[in-house]
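Hello forum,

I keep getting stuck at the same step: I have a sequence, I want structure tokens, and every attempt I make locally crashes halfway through. Rather than fight my setup again tonight, could one of you with a working pipeline run this one for me? It's a single chain of 141 residues.
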Amino acid sequence: MLYPTLKSLHIISLVAWMAGMFYLPRLFVYHVDAPAGSPQSETFKVMERRLLKAIINPAMVSTWVFGLWLAWEIGAFRDGWMHAKLVFVLILSGLHGVLVRRMREFAEDRNTRSARYYRIINEVPTLCLIAIVVLVVFKPF
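Reply #2:
Ran it on my machine without issues. Output:
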């Protein structure tokens, strides 16, 4: 009973984390065009902070906890596909850190990046997610 429970919690956490990772850079795309100090900019700041604190951060932590626990339970740490998956999860975690930094820049009205930058950054989670799903489903090595 532990395996399906861990797997379910891991997938639920991952879905929540990815939803936030897709949405936060999109908020930044629109925030770029809002003048600093404007009501729109202040609204974006609140939305970004709440998304990060209430959804993205807890979802990332629970994805890691349940994923590592699950991998331990099934003995996946000796498998090559798991090592590759962990690389992509580390990339996602690093991007998470970058998004936190960018959110702080917006909060301090110090953003210097363009909407195009955030549109490009917005594609990284999708590419990582595709790689992770393929690795988990096919277990190629």
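Residues 2-138 form one domain. If your local run keeps crashing, start a new thread with the error log.
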